[in-house]
Design a protein that fits this description.
Layout lengths: L8 H8 L6 H6 L4 E2 L12 E12 L2 E9 L10 E2 L2 E3 L6 H13 L6 E6 L3 E3 L4 E10 L12 E8 L9 E8 L2 E10 L2 E3 L1 H18 L3
Parallel strand pairs: 2-8
Antiparallel strand pairs: 1-11, 2-3, 2-5, 3-4, 3-9, 6-8, 7-8, 10-11, 11-12
Helix pairs in contact: 1-4
Length: 213
């Protein structure tokens, strides 16, 4: 079996190009479940957003970056997320993801090579439809976080997604509702919700791709 520290962009590209991959099942593995039926009713069309799953080499090993959101009054305050945000009317999803990553972390759009995309994901509490874009930088970025939005930059080795000892579940209250969340425990941060579901799709795509080696 491949030494997971040797995961490469070749493996990622193969994973993104898998035919007939069940994206919904991969996302569901790490989705939270709310105990109240129709807890987030809305008739409004979902707002559109994009995030960037940015890969780069650090110490000869592929990493990706997450951020801890600054504490404020928003629905996702203080949570762990990918850089990203709301799509503007004249933008493509790729342009949104690159612009937001530049604004939040200082990564220049022209330094990012886009590799592809993962499946869109709907977030009921905020009524957002999110498009994850996957990209890479040739070198480890120099982070310049926007401190009113980003409280912490978290760099994660890609191989940790395969470590089942770093996955957990708990019953909790969120948005005043009883939730069961499943999460990745990454350096003491519980990564759950949409971020965990996006990572779960990437993990399962990689597991499938690596099984062909």
């Amino acid at each position: 079996m491949l030494d997971l520290a040797l995961l490469s962009l070749v493996h990622v590209q193969q994973a993104l190009g898998l035919p007939d991959f069940d994206t919904a099942a991969a996302q569901r593995r790490m989705m939270p479940t709310v105990r109240v039926p129709q807890a987030f009713p809305t008739s409004a069309a979902p707002k559109q957003a994009a995030v960037l799953l940015l890969l780069y080499e650090r110490e000869a090993e592929l990493h990706f970056v997450l951020t801890r959101r600054a504490e404020h009054t928003g629905v996702h305050s203080g949570q762990i997320s990918f850089p990203g945000g709301r799509r503007e009317a004249d933008e493509s999803y790729i342009q949104t993801a690159l612009r937001e990553t530049h604004e939040e972390l200082g990564v220049l759009p022209e330094s990012v090579q886009v590799l592809g995309a993962l499946a869109q994901l709907y977030i009921p509490p905020s009524n957002y439809l999110v498009q994850p874009i996957v990209g890479t930088c040739a070198a480890q970025p120099h982070w310049r976080p926007k401190h009113d939005e980003v409280a912490e930059v978290i760099e994660v080795p890609l191989r940790l997604l395969f470590d089942d000892t770093l996955k957990g579940a708990e019953e909790t209250m969120r948005y005043g509702l009883p939730f069961r969340i499943v999460y990745y425990d990454l350096f003491g941060h519980k990564v759950w919700g949409a971020t965990a579901s996006i990572l779960s799709e990437l993990e399962m795509r990689l597991r499938t791709a690596l099984s062909n080696f």
